[in-house]
Amino acid sequence: xxxxRKILGVSVKCFYCVVAVCIIGIIIGSLFDFQINERMxxxxxxxxxxxxxxxxxxxxxxxxxxxxxxxxxxxxGLTMAGMVSLIAGWFLAVYYTNSYSGSKVRxxxxxxxxxxxxxxxxxxxxxxxxxxxWPMIVCHKVLDDKDADxxxxxxxxxxxxxxxxxxxxxxxxxxxxxxxxKYLLTIDDPMSEYRNxxxxxxxxxxxxxxxxxxxxxxxxIASMLFSLPMLSDLLKKRSELKNIVCFVIxxxxxxxxxxxxxxxxxxxxxxxxxxxxxxYIIYSVVSTAFLQVVDRKE
Length: 298
Hints:
Number of domains: 1
Shape: globular
Strand order of the largest sheet: 1-2
Distance between the termini: 14 Å
Order of helices and strands: EEHHHHHHHHHHHHHH
Oligomer: single chain
Strand content: under 5%
């Protein structure tokens, strides 16, 4: 009996459901983006903490993917290549966290550039680096190394799709240069500068974060968690139920993070849905392409 086709470790039906929800959100947002933000926007302390550090859970996928590559390549006798891949996965997590949330971590230590000791900055970096060690340790213990090709395919897919989606997002922010809602609130007539996502003014944003609303970069990061069922599918004690549980966890996290982005005045509904959809499609295409190589060998 032929196995049911999967995308990102779960049934194709799950794929269509996620895509459908994102498209519906885009349509609703395209009609009522500004009105939705008027009702939902309310900056809170707990919301600020989640906005700053919530992406940590998604970035844990990079060192986990590095461990997949390490175990797979080691099985094939390519230990050195595996070590390089492991370090690369860990470094990507540290690098992206430092880029997106590093300033928040340094603030916890009272660091002020040019005034505080540079060792405080070094300490914050070391803490970030340490926080990404546990995913590698856990994955080393729980992942099954019998299928080296599948380990390599999943690890490579997570890293390649993650880097690709992040850069696609950065490029689209420049193409659209859409004003953020929190920026619009600072001017006397917000509607005078409000623009829908399709009313693009390429390269207006430049380095000005106020014009980088579409698509949501944080949702691009959060939606990486949709690849979690692929990791679950590599467990020594794997099951379809565990894959589904991982998928539900990803859905709940992405939905909560999407609410947070609107709630904290950073994005509109269409920004959030586009950010999720872009990442989800890229991960789906890349993982399917990589895993097809494994399926053909079987």
